[in-house]
Write a structure and sequence with these properties.
Blueprint (H helix, E strand, L loop, with lengths): L5 E2 L9 H9 L19 H17 L6 E6 L2 H13 L5 E6 L2 H13 L1 E7 L20 E7 L1 E2 L4 E2 L11 E4 L16 E5 L10 E6 L16 H6 L9 H16 L2 H21 L6 E2 L10 E5 L3 H13 L2 E2 L10 E4 L6 H18 L1
Parallel strand pairs: 1-13, 3-4, 3-5, 5-8, 8-9
Antiparallel strand pairs: 2-10, 6-7, 9-10, 11-12, 12-14
Length: about 350
C-alpha cells in the first residue's frame, strides 16, 4: 500500500499494516458470526475466547512465568499512577519512586496524594537527559514497592537494565517500550502500559502482575479502583474495551510472527542505530538530546541549531509525508517515535530526508 504515511507519532502511534488489514477483513463479519467483534456481548463465548487468547499470548511472549496474571483496564496508564498507590501504598508503608522525567513525575504526583513516598533515584540534576543510576539503591524495610518508568517518552531516555530490589516489588510503567525487547518479568511485581504505542490502539491499559499483589486492596476502596475486583473477574467485572483488546491480540500475533521479542528487539536496534548514527555523524547539525548510555530505542529526541530551523524542519518534513516529528510541547525540539510497528524503510526515508535538509540548510 503506497499511501501509508511515514508515521512517527508518539502515541497513538503506527500499527502494523498487516494487523490493520486483518482487522479490516474481519471488521463487519467476525468469524462468520454476522457481527463485528464490537457488536457482541462481552459475556459471549466468541468474545471471551479473544479476551483469554490476548491474555495468554501476552504471558507466553514473556515466558509464561508462574504466578502472574494479566488485567485489561481502562483509564490509561495515567489511572494506574493513582490505582497503584491506592491499592498497595497502605497505612504505615512508604513507596520509592525513580524520578527520571516527565512521566515519572506524573506518577509521583499521584502517589503523593495517596501516601508516603521517597525518591529512590533522580536524574533531575541532569535535566533528565539520562536515566538515574540505580546501582546503590537503599530501600527502607517498610517499602511497599519501587516504581520506575522504563522509557521516558518525552525526554527520550530508556533503562538498559533494571535494579534488583530483593523482596520489595519492582513496578514499572512500560507504556512506551513494553515488548520492544525481551525482559525478565520475574524481576517485577507488576508492569503496566497504555496500549497505544507498542500494543494496539488506545482504550485499554495492560497490567501484568504477580497474583498476590492483586489481592491486598484496602477494604475502603471503591469497587472499580480495586485490583482484586478485576483479578477475580478476569477483567470482565464491567464491559471491557473489547475492540481494543481484540486489536492487542492481533498485534501480539504479529509480534510472534516477527520472531517474538528477540526478533522485535533486533529490528528496533537496527532502526535506532541507523537514526542515532546519522545524528552523530551530522557534524553537529543534528544534536541528540540524551546521554548515549540512556538513549531510547523508541523515542529519538534531537535538536537543530535554532527553533526557527526546527520549525522549518517540521514544515518541510510534513510536506514530504513525515508525521509526528515535533517534540513534546513541554520540551520542544524534535522527536521521532520508532515503536515496534514503524518499519525500517520509514526510518531510512527519514534519514534520507534529514540528509537532504542538511544539504540545503547546513
Ligand atoms: N506513561 C508513559 C511513559 C507514557 O508515555 C504515557 C503516555 N504518553 C503515559 C504514561 C500516560 O498514558 P495514558 O495517556 O494512557 O494515560
Amino acid at each position: 500500500m503506497s499511501n501509508r504515511a511515514f508515521n512517527f507519532n508518539a502515541g497513538p502511534a503506527a500499527l502494523p499494516l498487516e494487523v490493520l488489514e486483518r482487522a479490516q477483513a474481519e471488521f463487519v463479519d467476525f468469524h462468520g458470526t454476522g457481527m463485528s467483534i464490537m457488536e457482541m456481548s462481552h459475556r459471549g463465548a466468541v468474545y471471551e475466547a479473544v479476551h483469554n487468547e490476548a491474555s495468554s499470548r501476552l504471558l507466553k511472549l514473556l515466558g509464561n512465568p508462574s504466578g502472574y496474571m494479566v488485567l485489561f483496564l481502562q483509564g490509561g496508564a495515567s489511572t494506574q499512577f493513582a490505582m497503584l498507590p491506592m491499592n498497595l501504598l497502605t497505612e504505615g508503608k512508604t513507596a520509592g519512586y525513580v524520578k527520571s522525567g516527565s512521566w515519572a513525575n506524573k506518577a509521583i504526583k499521584e502517589a503523593k496524594l495517596i501516601g508516603d513516598t521517597f525518591i529512590a533515584g533522580s536524574s533531575e540534576a541532569d535535566k533528565y537527559m539520562r536515566m538515574p543510576d540505580l546501582s546503590s539503591l537503599s530501600l527502607p524495610e517498610h517499602t511497599a514497592y519501587l516504581h520506575l518508568t522504563s522509557n521516558e517518552t518525552i525526554e527520550g531516555t530508556q533503562f538498559r537494565e533494571f535494579p534488583d530490589t530483593g523482596n520489595v516489588p519492582l513496578i514499572a510503567d512500560m507504556s512506551s517500550d513494553i515488548l520492544c525487547r525481551p525482559f525478565d518479568l520475574t524481576q517485577f511485581g507488576m508492569v503496566y502500559a497504555g496500549a497505544q504505542k507498542n500494543l494496539g490502539p488506545s482504550g485499554v491499559t495492560v497490567v501484568i502482575a504477580r497474583e498476590e499483589l492483586l489481592q491486598n486492596s484496602p477494604k475502603h476502596l471503591p469497587t472499580m479502583f480495586r485490583y482484586d475486583t478485576h483479578a477475580d473477574n478476569n477483567s470482565l467485572y464491567n464491559t471491557p474495551p473489547s475492540f481494543s483488546i481484540y486489536m492487542v491480540n492481533e498485534v501480539l500475533k504479529w509480534i510472534e510472527e516477527q520472531g517474538a521479542l528477540t526478533g522485535v528487539e533486533q529490528k528496533n536496534r537496527e532502526k535506532a542505530d541507523l537514526l542515532y548514527r546519522f545524528i552523530d555523524e551530522s557534524n553537529g547539525f543534528f544534536r541528540g538530546c540524551t546521554q548515549p548510555d540512556s538513549r531510547s530505542t523508541m523515542n529519538v529526541t534531537f535538536r537543530l541549531a535554532s527553533e526557527e530551523l526546527e520549525k522549518l524542519f517540521i514544515k518541510e518534513s510534513e510536506k514530504e509525508g513525515f508525521i509526528g516529528l515535533k517534540g513534546h510541547r513541554s520540551v520542544g525540539g524534535l522527536r521521532a517515535s520508532i515503536y515496534n510497528a514503524v518499519p525500517y524503510a520509514a526510518v531510512k526515508a527519514l534519514v534520507d530526508f534529514m540528509g537532504q535538509f542538511q544539504k540545503t540548510h547546513g
